[in-house]
Amino acid sequence: MGSPVPIPVTRPDGLRSRLTIPALAFGGILMAVMQTVVVPLLPDLPRLTHSSASAVSWMVTASLLSGAVLTPVLGRAGDMYGKRRVLLLSFAMLSVGSVICALTSDIGILIAARALQGAASAVVPLSISILRDELPAEKRGSAVALMSSTVGIGAALGLPAAAVVIQYFNWHVMFWVTGVLGALGVVLIRWAVPESPLREPGRFDVTGAVGLAVGLVCLLLAVSQGGQWGWGSGRIVGLFATAVVVLALWWWQQGRAERPLVDLRLVTSPRVGLAHVAALLTGFAFYANSLVTAQLVQAPKETGYGLGLSLVETGLCLLPGGVIMLFLSPVSARISAARGARVTLALGTAVIACGYAVRIADSHSLVMIMVGAAVVATGTTFAYSALPSLILGAVPAGQTASANGVNVLMRTIGQAVSSAAVAAVLVHHTTPVGGLPVPTLHGYLVAFSVAGVVALAASAVALTIPREGRTGEGVRGVRSLREGVKEGA
């Protein structure tokens, strides 16, 4: 990997500079909203698109797969060719995908458009990298914490908003709204966000990008479709075997490439590697909360535990978690500044486990369900804001977007595994209600227990991450490059 080089840029001033952080945060929230809004539609999409339920499930799977593949690839492209430039590309792809979804009811085209929208998954790591390049050290922690928390904020906002649109408007309206918001994001970023002055020179590793894409698609496709196709089926076994072979060859190729897509020396270093493991476990633990809570409160009252809530009411139950993440992100930044990001990560994942303990103790009362979900959201705020800080403090300035892209990828893999695990648990714990199999309360409690144990494992991993060393020299290096660019401009 080459050393980062300064690039002359024009920096926004006045109001534009003050809107840089809000503009990037808006992008992160919109990305999470995009991932969430299709969920309330899934039960009705087979009828609306004249297709099968299995085909409709690809509306979620397509964006998951493309996001997992494109996040590290676009992160690396941002380090090399300009983070704002690639960020604008991500938003443009989101907007185009939204408009296509708004114009069609053909399931094949809808799936392709959702894959296009998956490019927005790169928004958060690119934005965090821009914040590192642009902000002084004393402001960087709170801004990065807010940016990382936008994932939960957007998810909490997206579900009730989508439910309202579906209940009172044509379902295509939802995609017109996200398309317009995506176009607004492009305008805001062009106006208020400067291009990063740091670039990582070299040629883009096309072979590495293709190898990573094939390996990840096979892996995540097997994880996400194993429940439907059968875990022992030839297709699933073949996908897992292909993923192992391709990713092993990719690892070998990356170790010998002059300009690799992913610097394996960083990935295998204790501070970065353990942070990636913690990200995977945290993604698993966090995602189970949203999956299980939504199903539990919507379960029919005949089950003896279900509350029979509507989609809108379910969304409102999850909304407090998003509000908590918004207001607690500065607190998380202060803890990281005082105690270190590894302590914040360990604390956050331990709090997630406590939230699941609340859910196990009482999942009958709506108040206690909301309290437990809020505790999980609190822990997620601390954990998700600490992860990028750990990465930023451990990688060179010219590789921040790609390194954070890999970290987000690990979270995505954790969420995919969480979805498969929760589905497997609930399928094995069902009871007939009205002639249909419905998960039992015991099944939900088992899912909470699994997620809580994984959260504790993430906390233990966080405590094994080496303490942050002296980063002053790196900070001074970035500042000197920034000052050199200003003088040159």
Chart the SSEs and their pairings.
Blueprint: E1 5-6, H1 15-18, H2 20-36, H3 45-49, H4 53-56, H5 58-81, H6 83-103, H7 107-117, H8 123-134, H9 137-168, H10 172-192, E2 198-199, H11 206-229, H12 234-256, H13 264-267, H14 270-298, H15 311-339, H16 341-361, H17 366-392, H18 400-427, E3 430-433, E4 436-439, H19 441-464, H20 472-488
Antiparallel strand pairs: 1-2, 3-4
Helix pairs in contact: 2-8, 2-9, 2-10, 5-6, 5-7, 5-11, 5-18, 6-7, 6-8, 6-10, 8-9, 8-18, 9-15, 9-17, 11-12, 11-18, 14-15, 14-16, 14-17, 14-18, 14-19, 15-16, 15-17, 16-17, 16-19, 17-18, 18-19
Give the gist of this structure.
The chain is an all-alpha fold and 489 residues long.
Structural notes for this entry:
There is one protein chain. The chain is an all-alpha fold and 489 residues long. 77% of the residues lie in helices and 2% in strands. The protein is built from 20 helices and 4 strands. It has helices at 15-18, 20-36, 45-49, 53-56, 58-81, 83-103, 107-117, 123-134, 137-168, 172-192, 206-229, 234-256, 264-267, 270-298, 311-339, 341-361, 366-392, 400-427, 441-464, 472-488, and strands at 5-6, 198-199, 430-433, 436-439. The strands form 2 sheets. A two-stranded antiparallel ribbon has the order 1-2. The chain has a two-stranded antiparallel ribbon with strand order 3-4. A hairpin with a 2-residue loop joins strand 3 (430-433) and strand 4 (436-439). The longest helix is centred in the first third of the chain and has 32 residues, at 137-168.
